[in-house]
Specification:
heterodimer; A: 501 residues; mainly alpha; 2 domains; 3-stranded antiparallel sheet; 16 helices; B: 197 residues; two-stranded antiparallel ribbon; mitochondrion inner membrane (chain B); COA8 (chain B)
Chain lengths: 501, 197
């Protein structure tokens, strides 16, 4: 026989016993909305040993519903709002939300030696476990399970908690430890495999990487070829997925420590490490092959370099040295170069401009993000700038934000974009610098969050502005080769339109 | 899922009967709350050393029954998710080696992180106490908290103090992790070959 008491969507659930563990879930979900126990998750646990710090309450006006027929699946627990009175007679105008377990469902067996009604201080919920009402209905089911039914609710007793009187203890007999229901067989669920793979490849990050690569391709002055662009996009995406999967494979115990990462696929064991590695190997090979055959050797080797840099330099470096952020920025700066190289087959100045925008962007972005995670990083052993050198962290973010203005002005100077880019990117970069300066001055979580959120808008916006103010070499080409209608001149015109639409 | 649900129930009952029967037996309330020494077997989770161990008894699922490894919730001390390994009836030596390697890695990880996290918590508490005293003196009437700036000093110190420990741990973890995945691949190949025959 065992008892397990759990509540979801209630403020709390109180119950006292020597061995009972009491746990409750904070959350907006009402218990009746999902009565099945298998859906429960315990995000917050608390055990009360020996003594429940309770202020007892007297419930009034609660009447039981008829239990209904015993058709197995019903869960006989009701959450209800009841007016309550304190033991000392004080009335409260607020109703209290209680969880009544009137009859055990298959997974909730409740027995108690007493008939107490305990109310955790400031709690919104009460669990009633009563012995007097307990009957042992030994209906041995098909699995030999013994069902114990609690009788429908009749009246409510209360016990007074005074210092002198020795309160008899409730005992929840055979309580299950918390989390007992959270064990899951580690079997691959094919239906969810897609979402697991999305998790392994950190789909949002990969999406951003792909966007920068496409932007790199769009900016390049070469001929536009849809197949190349497709293969370049896919190849970059797959390479990035591989890198992320390998990164997660290496970081399982570290990811487990941090709230931000503790729900990753490999941490939760939804996919085995070998599976993750196989996924990474497949993606990596396919991605590289696409870059090589779809684009060119340069793009493929940039992809390979980035994969290597991310997985075997950046990932271990995060736990070794503060320079990891700079290495990470290099990793972030390479994707537009891949796009550029896919288009032109070389690395011209324009590509480097894009790469340096990406490089500079990482600092306000990541430093602001890591600012609020200092506690986690410290515990998990990540040597991040925000922890080891907070001052430098803020300085660097500010420095590179201002540098961004310089880079965006440099772009038209070396003939990558028109001067409109320098002008219309100015407000964006100006605001970025302003937020970075606020972050530098205030150094609080609010300013860092603001800066982080803005960087998320800033990057796509700058990329977009850059593409629409791209220098159209096609016009020059036309002048050069006046009467020969070259294909390239027509197609390059399409690039910005194709991207922007 | 429903079948699993039912099986869980029966299993749960069995286990609870086994483990908590002594409690059921003498659960008459005699006000004997302060005599844990008399019935030490009734308080299975309160021993301090016991806490740190990987406790498999919590699960309702038996890996032997579902015929695959089972993974639990995040441990509250180490934050790691504990896996219970399935032992197939005809376990090959390689499979055994793989399972033992994983068990060993898990135990090692568990002990490292639960110690480390406990250490973090303790040091943080100490730091806060000391810092509060420095700031406000002994007469702290209302609850005061430290600013994020103050705390960042602790985070930095803790990280620096544990630098070598982490270095060691990282190296060891990379080794173990790689070894485990190689073993997993070998086991997989072996199974493939066996099913072909």
């Amino acid at each position: 026989m065992c008892s397990i008491a759990c509540a979801r969507g209630l403020n709390t659930l109180g119950l006292a016993s020597e061995i009972a563990k009491i746990y409750f879930v904070k959350g907006p979900v009402h218990i009746l909305s999902r009565p099945r126990t298998q859906g429960l998750r315990y995000s917050y646990l608390r055990s009360l040993h020996n003594r429940c710090k309770s202020s007892t309450v007297l419930l009034s006006g609660s009447h039981s519903q008829d239990g209904g027929d015993d058709n197995g699946d019903n869960v006989f627990e009701v959450t209800r709002e009841v007016p309550f009175t304190r033991a000392n007679g004080d009335k409260f105008d607020k109703n209290v939300k209680i969880l009544l377990i009137e009859k055990s469902s298959k997974l909730k067996f409740l027995i108690s030696k007493e008939a107490p009604l305990l109310h955790h201080a400031q709690a919104g919920a009460v669990v009633d476990v009563r012995n007097g009402a307990t009957q042992m209905g030994s209906s041995s089911g098909e699995h030999g399970a013994q069902e114990i039914h609690l009788q429908p609710y009749e009246d409510v007793e209360y016990i007074e908690e005074t210092k002198d009187s020795i309160r008899e203890k409730t005992q929840l007999v055979g309580a299950l430890p918390p989390g007992a229901l959270d064990w899951k067989p580690q079997r691959i669920d094919l239906k969810k495999l897609g979402s697991y793979y999305a998790g392994l490849s950190k789909s949002r990050l990969t999406g951003l990487v792909v966007i920068t690569a496409v932007a790199g391709y769009a900016m390049a002055p070469g001929p536009f070829d849809p197949t190349t662009l497709m293969l370049c996009t896919l190849g970059t995406g797959l390479t990035s997925s591989a890198a992320n999967a390998i990164n997660q494979f290496f970081e399982v115990p570290f990811d487990s420590q941090m709230d931000r990462t503790k729900n990753r696929v490999l941490v939760r064991g939804l996919v085995t490490p070998l599976h993750g590695i196989c996924f990474a190997a497949t993606c990596g090979t396919a991605g590289m092959a696409m870059l090589y055959f779809g684009a060119n050797g340069l793009a493929a080797s940039l992809g390979a370099l980035n994969l290597l840099l991310y997985t075997s330099v950046y990932t271990p470096l995060k736990r070794m040295s503060i320079i990891n952020t700079w290495v990470g920025s290099v990793v972030g700066a390479i994707p537009p170069l891949i796009g550029w190289a896919s288009c032109t087959g070389g690395l011209e100045a324009g590509g480097w401009i894009m790469a340096s925008i990406l490089f500079a962007w990482q600092f306000p972005h990541f430093n602001a993000l890591s600012w609020n995670l200092r506690s986690d990083y410290s515990r998990a052993g990540y040597r991040m700038m925000s922890v080891t050198n907070p001052g430098l962290c803020r300085r660097v973010a500010l420095r590179y934000s201002i540098a961004m203005i310089g880079i965006c002005t440099l772009a038209p100077m070396i003939d990558v974009t028109t001067w409109t880019f320098a002008v219309d990117s100015l407000p964006l970069n100006g605001y970025l610098s302003y937020l970075a300066w606020r972050f530098y001055e205030d150094a609080d979580s609010k300013s860092s969050r603001k800066l982080f959120l803005f960087t998320l808008i800033h990057l796509p916006a700058v990329m977009m502005l850059m593409i629409i103010s791209k220098k159209h070499y096609s016009k020059k080409n036309k002048l050069d080769t006046e009467n020969t209608p070259s294909e390239t001149s027509n197609t390059t015109d399409l690039v910005p339109v194709g991207i922007c639409s | 899922m429903l079948s699993l649900y039912k099986r869980n129930c029966s299993l749960m009952l069995e286990r609870c009967c086994m483990e908590f029967l002594p409690v059921c037996g003498c659960s008459s309330v005699s006000g004997s709350s302060t005599e844990p020494s008399e019935r030490p077997n009734m308080l299975p989770k309160q021993g301090k050393q016991k806490r740190r161990e990987v406790d498999h008894k919590e699960a309702l699922i038996d890996p032997q029954e579902v015929k695959c490894d089972c993974i639990g919730p995040a441990d509250r001390h180490s934050n790691l998710r504990i896996t219970q390994f399935y032992i197939p009836p005809s376990e090959t030596p390689l499979q055994r080696q793989y399972r033992e390697a994983r068990t060993e890695t898990q135990g090692w990880n568990q002990s490292f992180w639960s110690d480390h996290n406990a250490n973090f918590k303790r040091m943080k508490e100490e730091f806060i106490q000391v810092r509060l005293k420095e700031k406000y003196g002994d007469n702290i009437k209302e609850r005061k908290t430290l600013s994020a700036d103050d705390m960042s000093e602790f985070y930095k110190r803790f990280l620096d103090d544990n630098k070598d420990l982490h270095k060691q741990y990282n190296r060891e973890w990379y080794k173990k992790n790689a070894n485990n995945v190689l073993l997993a691949a070998r086991v997989w190949f072996q199974q493939r070959v066996n099913t072909r025959r």
